[in-house]
Design goal:
heterotrimer; A mainly alpha (279); B alpha/beta (322); C alpha/beta (305); B: 322 residues; alpha/beta; four-stranded antiparallel β-sheet; 9 helices; globular; C: 305 residues; eight-stranded mixed β-sheet; three-stranded antiparallel β-sheet; 12 helices; 11 strands; 36% helix; binds adenosine-5'-triphosphate; binds magnesium ion
């Protein structure tokens, strides 16, 4: 009773936010930050790191550091867009299922179960291969399969909001579902949706990297995944080149996912209805 | 005398966009060990704020600007939060206003009472369950209800569950914020009876906030009347409301419809409650006071003694100083 | 006889609680509230008063029985019904959306039913806040519920329910958190509305004196059943049911000192049996039904008096 659970310190969340902010800046300022145009041959291929090329050059002589910086743009963009698609779908499904309940809910939740139990990565690969490479295809494939988790989380929140007295009061005044949902339920799930969005973005970036690594990404855009793809293709894993060709891209992916995850869990914890309760 | 609780010149303010709002503005009260205090006052006059300050559970936008709260001689205002955690529920418990909302919706009420008992005493789970059932019975609920979730109970039943919980911990001081609102006359009388027994058996003291004069005087040795953040009258319960002196106290007593006799138009108290942000100058009650004199518009009256243990802040009753 | 504003016919609601316990929250309730009439409903906490209000407002489906509004089925014309009938919820801490400011909360019914422009809604909100005693209203419009005291929240909820000038209001303990002087203002307001606009009202309260003051008729509920019903003066003055008597006694005395213990009533008998000083053998075997003992005064007791 009335005992306030102390939330975990926000320090980790702040670290995550810092990482994301830095990455966002890098993505925005990529043309100014990168020493070369990543699409042009700057030097001879397979150069090791030097003063002119801090991370050396790749198989066709492009500057790897510039690739890395420009890759931030594509990776972040795809991750965020995919998360937006996933969240829009997930929120819609969660709202409808949670609010109406009954057979609609049962049907939608069975669908969620199906999406959740099919092996995710193989299905993504299959779909991406079928649709062909391209940024929008990647976004749609990831978003179209990643909505299930947010849908389930949001549905349970909607169910708890639906029985709140003030939601019932709105219905009692004659509020139509659209009014009640947009006026009372949607604002109530916004924080949760934000947390889910951040987590989905982290997931999206990872999946995008996997797809690009497999050569199923957008061939004309440089992303971290596609860098790894070419590094692998040219045997960088076998020579010493992995240290400057593979490792930085891998680290960037890890760092980004970490940033998103930290922020996501922090938000989730902050807005978890079970932690919020009380007065 | 051995005082359980002494409040000295307490000021609590909410900070908001409109600036600082002093909801409790210079309250001083004294509660001897084993005695109980009834606190009445108009809606919005700062009773809940005072109660929350006593257990240091004020919301983050509120702060104690000055004053002291001495519980058994220890100043709660200065106490660090970690030490305060040991004080709350063990030495002073709060039954919050609208207590029914402080139950956790995902556990059965029996579980929550058991938890409350287990955090304070080491008891076997069978024993804790038995005591939970007994606690419910004490407040007039079917013990089988301990398997119910809060939403399955009526508002008054939930209120009684929280009351049962606060009693389970047996602290020497219980601050009860309108515990009887939402209870029918019989349940309320039972709860009040329970409080009285606790007082006699364990010497528990109560600060009983209520807008119901009967409830405030039922346990009270003392009654304090608040108006717009200030205590305007303190008197022995026996003298209230019959011999209350402050015009506000007397208006309060006249505002309740009688149970017998002819129906009459309720008068209430005409005029507006002053906003806590900008109280009127002088006596805060003067714009609504039928007997206001010139002095009332300029000088705020101090509490002064009109009878043993009876203090009034009103120019019309200028007795000896405090 | 003029048509009742709201009518309940053999209304029942059974909850299936945890551990498969069935709770008979409302049991075969018959009730008719006319226009311009205030029906006071009192009774033990947990006796089904709020459930009755929710059933009348169509917020809950009855297990059996039905509700009529002006003779028609509210479910058939939900918009019209929702515009004319309003509920004041019992718990103002839960009934206000914590994320919305007072202005949005109070004008929500206007927004839902498309009444007025923004400025008109604001003016109406001010007017009703003033009428429930939140003055000056400008001070309150931009506040969030957590910035209000309990009684202030309660008055916001009342203003919200009345702003559409409904024809029927179910008020579930609307003054439970108000001090007497403010309560007097609200009660006077309700009486005025009832006299001027012919408001029909179900007024749930725990305070018998308040019930007598505002209502024309009073019903007393116990364990889901109406055990006594009649003109306000008769029910308070010449109470016939032992439960009503106990209520009145407790209201007068204030403190009950003897310890209570809970005994479950026998399944077929009178629900009040275990607590009844008059109970005889017949009370354990047979449930009493409402029978007239005076002009419109009904009581369900084998030994009324
Ligand atoms: N968070 C806040 N920000 C600003 N003002 C606040 C806040 N909380 C309360 N207030 C104001 O402080 C005053 C005192 O509030 P408090 O809750 O202590 O009143 P109360 O005496 O308990 O009233 P009631 O009997 O209605 O519960 C009220 O006028 C209220 O509007
Ligand atoms: N959702 C629910 N599930 C199970 N039981 C319920 C539910 N809602 C109410 N009940 C039960 O129905 C009975 C009547 O409840 P109701 O809220 O109508 O009481 P009330 O007369 O309004 O009481 P109070 O004065 O305390 O508000 C109670 O025994 C309660 O436990
Ligand atoms: Mg209060
Ligand atoms: Mg109720």
């Amino acid at each position: 009773m009335l005992k306030r659970r102390r939330a975990r310190s926000p320090a980790l969340g702040l670290v995550g936010a810092g990482i994301l902010l830095a990455l966002g800046l890098v993505a925005l300022l990529a043309p100014w930050l990168s020493p070369y145009d990543p699409h042009h041959r700057a030097s001879r291929p397979f150069l090791p790191p030097s003063a002119g090329h801090p991370l050396g050059t790749n198989d066709i002589g492009q500057d790897i550091a510039s690739e890395l910086i420009h890759g931030t743009r594509v990776s972040l963009l795809i991750g965020v867009l995919a998360a937006a698609v996933a969240l829009s779908l997930g929120t819609l499904v969660g709202l409808v299922a949670g609010y109406y309940g009954g057979p609609v809910d049962v049907l939608l939740m069975r669908l969620v179960d199906v999406v959740l139990v099919v092996p995710f990565l193989p299905l993504v690969i299959l779909l991406a291969a079928y649709l062909g490479p391209g940024m929008w295809n990647t976004v749609l494939v990831i978003g179209g399969l990643a909505w299930a988790r947010p849908a389930r989380v949001i549905r349970s929140q909607v169910m708890s909001l639906r029985s709140r007295c003030y939601v019932v009061a709105s219905q009692a005044m004659g509020g139509r579902p659209a009014h009640v949902l947009s006026g009372h339920v949607l604002p109530g799930i916004m924080p949760l949706a934000l947390a889910q969005f951040v987590l989905a973005a982290s997931h999206g970036i990872l999946v995008e990297a996997s797809l690009s690594f497999l050569g199923l990404g957008d061939p004309v855009r440089k992303s971290w995944g596609s860098m790894l793809h070419y590094a692998q293709l040219r045997g960088a894993f076998l020579t010493g080149a992995w240290r400057w060709w593979v490792l930085p891209a891998g680290l960037m992916i890890t760092l980004t996912t970490l940033g998103f995850t930290l922020v996501g869990y922090w938000l989730e914890e902050r807005f978890d209805p079970r932690l919020r309760g009380g007065r | 005398m051995d005082d359980l609780l002494v409040i000295e010149d307490l000021v609590v303010a909410y900070s908001g966009p409109a600036g600082e709002v002093r909801a409790v503005d210079g309250v001083s009260l004294r509660l001897p060990r084993g005695a109980s205090l009834g606190l009445v006052g108009e809606s919005g006059c700062g009773k809940t704020t005072l109660a929350l300050a006593l257990v240091r559970l004020l919301p983050s936008c509120a702060s104690i600007l000055s004053g002291r709260i001495l519980l058994e001689g220890e100043d709660l205002v200065q106490m660090p939060e970690t030490a305060m955690e040991g004080v709350r529920w063990r030495r002073v418990a709060l039954i919050p206003q609208a207590a029914m909302n402080s139950l956790n919706p995902v556990y059965t009420v029996g579980w929550q009472i058991r938890e409350a008992i287990a955090t304070h005493e080491r008891v076997a789970s069978r024993e804790a369950d038995r005591r939970a059932a007994a606690a419910l019975e004490l407040v007039g609920l079917d013990p089988a209800r301990r398997f119910a979730y809060p939403h399955e109970l009526s508002v008054g039943m939930r209120q009684r569950v929280v009351i049962a919980m606060a009693f389970a911990c047996r602290p020497p001081l219980i601050v009860a914020d309108e515990p009887g609102s939402g209870l029918d006359a019989i349940s309320r009388a039972q709860v009040l009876g329970l409080m009285q027994r606790l007082r006699h058996r364990l010497g528990t003291s109560f600060v009983m906030i209520s807008h119901d004069l009967e409830e405030a005087t039922a346990l009270g040795d003392l009654v304090a009347v608040m108006y717009a953040g200030k205590v305007v009258e303190v008197c022995p319960a026996g003298r209230f409301p019959g011999q209350a002196r402050h015009p506000y106290s007397r208006a309060l007593a006249a505002a309740h419809p009688p149970l017998r006799g002819p129906r009459q138009q309720l008068t209430g108290i005409p005029g507006e409650v002053p906003r806590p942000g900008s109280p009127p100058p002088g006596c805060r009650f003067h714009p609504r006071c039928p007997e206001a004199a010139a002095a009332c518009r300029q000088v705020g009256p101090e509490l002064s003694k009109v009878a043993p243990g009876h203090h009034v802040a009103c120019h019309l009753w200028g007795g000896e100083g405090l | 006889m003029t048509q009742a504003r709201v009518e309940a016919i053999e209304l029942s609601r059974i909850y299936r609680g945890s551990r498969r316990r069935a709770v008979l929250a409302v049991d075969r309730l018959n009730l008719a509230i006319g226009g311009g009439e205030v029906f006071g409903l009192v009774g033990e906490s947990g006796s089904g008063k709020s459930t009755t209000a929710r059933l009348l407002m169509g917020l809950e489906r009855p297990t059996s029985g039905r509700v009529l509004y002006r003779g028609w089925d509210p479910a058939k014309r939900p918009r019209e019904f929702r515009r004319q009938a309003q509920l004041i919820f019992q718990d103002p801490y839960a009934a206000l959306n914590p994320a919305l400011r007072v202005l949005r909360t109070v004008t929500e019914p206007l927004a839902i039913h498309g009444v007025g422009t923004g400025a008109e809604r604001r003016r109406l909100a001010c007017r009703w806040l003033e009428r429930v005693g939140l003055t000056p209203p400008r001070d309150y419009l931009d506040r969030f519920p957590h910035e209000l005291s309990g009684g202030q929240r309660q008055r916001v909820a009342i203003a919200r329910a009345l702003i559409l000038e409904p024809a029927f209001v179910a008020a579930d303990e609307p003054t439970s958190m108000l001090d007497l002087s403010v309560q007097a203002g609200i009660l006077n307001l309700l009486v005025t509305l009832q006299q001027e606009m012919g408001l029909g009202c179900l007024f749930i309260t725990h305070d018998l004196a308040v019930a007598r003051h505002v209502s024309h008729r009073i019903g007393v509920m116990f364990a889901g059943r109406l055990v006594e019903q009649g003109p306000a003066e008769a029910v308070v003055g010449t109470a016939a049911h032992p439960y009503t008597r106990q209520l009145l006694a407790a209201a007068a005395v204030g403190v009950l000192t003897e310890e209570v213990s809970f005994t479950a009533p026998s399944p077929d008998g009178c629900r009040f049996g275990p607590r009844c000083p008059r109970a005889g053998a017949v009370c354990r075997e047979q449930e009493p039904f409402l029978t007239a003992i005076g002009d419109g005064h009904l009581v369900a007791c084998h030994f009324p008096g």
